[in-house]
Amino acid sequence: MGIYKKGNTYWMIKQYRGKKVERSLDTSVKRSAEERYSKIVSEIVDGSYFQKPKDFTISYLIAKYMEDRVSTKASNTLARDKSLREHIIANFGAYLLAEVTSEMVSEYRTKRYAEKKSVATVNRELTFLRNAYNVAIRHYKWCFVNPVSSLKFDGEKSGRDRWLTVEQETALLSKCEGRLHEIVRLVLNTGLRQDEVLSLTRAGVDLFRRTVTVRGKGDKIRTIPLNTAALEILKVKMKTRHISSDLVFPSGAGTKIIRQRLVRAFSKAVKDAELVDFHFHDLRHTFATRLAQAGVDLYKIAKLLGHNDVSTTQRYAHHCPESLRSSVDILQNYYNFTTVASDDEKEPVHVSG
To answer: What is the spatial distance between Cα 184 and Cα 224, in angstroms, rounded to a whole number?
Structure first.
């Protein structure tokens, strides 16, 4: 019999015609586990098991969803998902997948607003639940309806538009020391995300081609060209290495720097530089804003930032007057050409005396 115990709970595993079913039997009593196992096996054999929603709880789905995605998500994304998970489980955890309705999800949203949560926060929580349901439907085949899909998300305020002036950058860098100074300057000149710079390996640095290759959101790999400032930083870093690490910016122990420690050090430097409301991610905004102000088109900025959709980069459009100016200048060339052409084509007018 394919029953085994994991912790205090009995689980089952069954292979049948190329399909594998492995799931919790939701009991610590062996007799009950055997009865549930026999019932599920009967449903597997007659085919009905794969044709009906599974009696899994939201808690079980989210545990499975998180477990399967640990290897594909960045550490900061996982940290965010763990926070989102707590609120979803607290409200929906005990319900079976088929029991959650769109009305319940809508009531949850109203409740979160009453708790003074922002539209962005609530949208992130609902997106997390929607994604978990999508995986349950498409990959696990546990249910057929996503109760979040029919809900229209509320519009959010425009994203942050916080970036550094040259004077503010000088003040900030004067308060950053050692490794933090190098990291801040590198992000300002490459637009790397926090996790991308902390995960950057020596193998990803090509000084000859003047590029770095990183693994970004969604496990997507992109290569970014280096300007002179970024190249000089990495030239120095490549001269030495930690004995047990291939990371460009390892901790003293050779491990990846803990995100919270970097944030604390950065926040202190921001405070010491007397800057207000400036986050680490705003270094990336500074990189993109400066490119836009210099006339770089949004498509190129999107590629450098690793945005899948240029609409995500659209937030920087109002910084792009110079790149737009070259477009309207084409019209001036057009008018000059047509005016000259029309003048040349006119027949001379002879006036008799």
So the answer is: 17
Whether the CB-CB separation of 41 and 76 falls below 8 Å is answered with no
| Parallel, antiparallel or unpaired: strands 221-225 and 3-6 | unpaired
Q: Do the beta carbons of residue 61 and residue 99 sit within 8 Å?
A: no
Catalytic residue numbers, as ranges: 193, 217, 279, 284, 307, 316
Q: What pairs with residue 24 in β-bridges?
A: 11
- Compute and round to an integer the Cα radius of gyration of the chain: 29
DSSP, collapsed to helix, strand or coil, labels residue 47 as coil
Tokens of 327: 């477009």
Question: Where in the chain do CATH 1.10.443.10 domains reside?
Answer: 166-280
- As a whole number of angstroms, the distance between CA 256 and CA 244 comes to 11
Q: Which fold does the domain 166-280 belong to in CATH? A: hpI Integrase; Chain A (1.10.443)
Q: Lowest mean pLDDT: which of 75-84, 125-134, 159-168, 227-236?
A: 75-84
What is the biggest distance separating any 2 CA atoms in the chain, rounded to whole angstroms? 124
The residues of the chain that CATH labels 1.10.150 are 58-140
Element (H, E) at 215: strand 211-215
Determine whether domain 58-140 maps to CATH 1.20.120.
Answer: no
Q: How confident is the model at residue 309 (pLDDT cuts 50, 70, 90)?
A: confident
Q: Tell me what the mean pLDDT of segment 330-350 comes to.
A: 59
| Partners of residue 22 on adjacent β-strands | 13
| Residue written as token pair 């979040």 | 148
Average pLDDT estimate for 17-27 = 82
User: Within 13 Å of residue 26, how many CA atoms lie on the same side as its CB?
Assistant: 10
